[in-house]
């Protein structure tokens, strides 16, 4: 922590140089924890920037927070930057109603914003609970992921890191990352999952700390999804290959269902496993799997069907555990699976796979038959390609 009580007044290390603090420490000052009133020691080492620590392990709202060197540094840097933008920025302020201490609390007119720098891995349910708590108190939370993320294609993210994915109309599913050591933020926009933990994306946008503002204001990339559509087929193919290799010696429920239906997994039609832009990231289960279930449960089964029927079938599979949704606690309500299904339906129409019937009803625009041989599969690929090449080659 960076703030203590000293002679009954708040004392923050970041307002002083290390030399000044060393000098002060020689006089054996009494620093007190503002939260639990127990004594604190001033630490002036080489790894973390100057900070306070409890002398012993005690039950203090603050003592339980894990603070890595990067966390302490990030908090100090953000405090300095945000103090240039807002008059009222509090460091490590105790929000009584929530019994929580966000790293920074900004008050601007009627609005309150809590900034949390997250370096250590905690449970996503804790992130969710704290986010909901802030929102209940009309405090807008801003979580900044500060664990190392290597910027490459595809972008690999752990389950925990994925929990920080947010949604905006400009960037769609995106991740905001803060690198305190190098003093910049990165926005990873248009995240589109290709496996459980890897994502295709548009070009990352770097924001130097001195240009960081809240709300974040940057122009979106000129050409979204440049890598996604071009390489989608290849990633889909790779995922299928891995699925077979991984499950060659064990039972896989999905592969079992495909087999029982009389379909051949490696020859599944190209329109099963299409990228539903932009909502692909909502689903942890691969598009080949969940879209196959939709074909099997609805489109193949009923001559006439509606979007609601697909929606219900999807939710039923979710409740059975066949389809798994990604845990995204920072998404505001409304970015739900309904949108995923809506856009999936739209895509089926664009691809000319379904045709409108009476009222809300649709029907397949061709007879369902899964290719049985490699030759049949190749013929299918040739037939289908013209239907979606404009989507694949977009941008
Ligand atoms: Zn304390």
From TrEMBL:
Coiled coil: none annotated. It holds the Pfam family CoiA_N. It comes from Rossellomorea oryzaecorticis. Residues 67-203 form the Competence protein CoiA nuclease-like domain. Signal peptide: none annotated. Residues 231-364 form the Competence protein CoiA C-terminal domain. This is Competence protein CoiA family protein. Residues 15-62 form the Competence protein CoiA-like N-terminal domain. InterPro entries: CoiA-like_N, CoiA_C, CoiA_nuc, Competence-induced_CoiA.
């Amino acid at each position: 922590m960076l703030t203590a009580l000293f002679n009954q007044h708040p004392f923050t290390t970041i307002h002083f140089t290390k030399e000044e603090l060393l000098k002060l420490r020689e006089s054996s000052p009494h620093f007190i924890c503002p939260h639990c009133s127990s004594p604190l020691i001033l630490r002036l080492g080489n790894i973390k920037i100057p900070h306070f620590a409890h002398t012993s392990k005690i039950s203090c709202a603050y003592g339980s927070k894990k603070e890595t060197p990067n966390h302490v540094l990030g908090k100090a840097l953000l405090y300095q930057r945000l103090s240039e933008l807002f008059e009222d920025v509090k460091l490590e302020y105790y929000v009584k109603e929530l019994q929580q201490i966000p790293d920074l609390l900004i008050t601007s007119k009627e609005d309150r914003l809590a900034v949390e720098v997250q370096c250590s891995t905690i449970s996503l349910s804790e992130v969710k609970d704290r986010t909901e708590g802030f929102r209940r108190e009309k405090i807008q939370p801003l979580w900044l992921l500060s664990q190392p993320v290597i910027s490459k294609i595809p972008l690999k993210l752990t389950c925990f890191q994925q929990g920080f994915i947010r949604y905006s109309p400009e960037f769609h599913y995106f991740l905001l990352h803060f690198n305190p050591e190098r003093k910049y933020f990165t926005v990873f926009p248009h995240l589109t999952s290709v496996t459980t933990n890897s994502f295709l994306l548009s070009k990352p946008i770097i924001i130097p700390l001195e240009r960081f503002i809240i709300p974040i204001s940057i122009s979106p990339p000129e050409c979204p999804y440049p890598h996604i559509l071009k390489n989608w087929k290849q990633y889909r193919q790779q995922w299928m290959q891995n699925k077979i290799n991984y499950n060659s010696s064990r039972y896989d429920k999905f592969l079992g269902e495909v087999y029982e239906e009389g379909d051949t997994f490696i020859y599944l039609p190209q329109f099963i496993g299409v990228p539903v832009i932009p909502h692909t990231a909502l689903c942890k289960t691969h598009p080949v799997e969940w879209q196959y279930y939709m074909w099997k449960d609805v489109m193949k089964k009923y001559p006439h069907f509606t979007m609601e029927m697909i929606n219900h079938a999807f939710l039923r599979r979710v409740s059975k555990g066949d389809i798994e949704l990604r845990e995204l606690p920072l998404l505001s309500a409304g970015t739900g699976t309904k949108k995923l299904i809506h856009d999936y339906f739209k895509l089926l129409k664009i691809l000319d796979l379904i045709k409108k019937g009476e009222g809300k009803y649709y029907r397949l625009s061709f007879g369902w038959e899964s290719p049985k041989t490699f030759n049949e599969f190749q013929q299918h690929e040739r037939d289908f390609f013209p239907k979606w090449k404009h989507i694949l080659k977009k941008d």
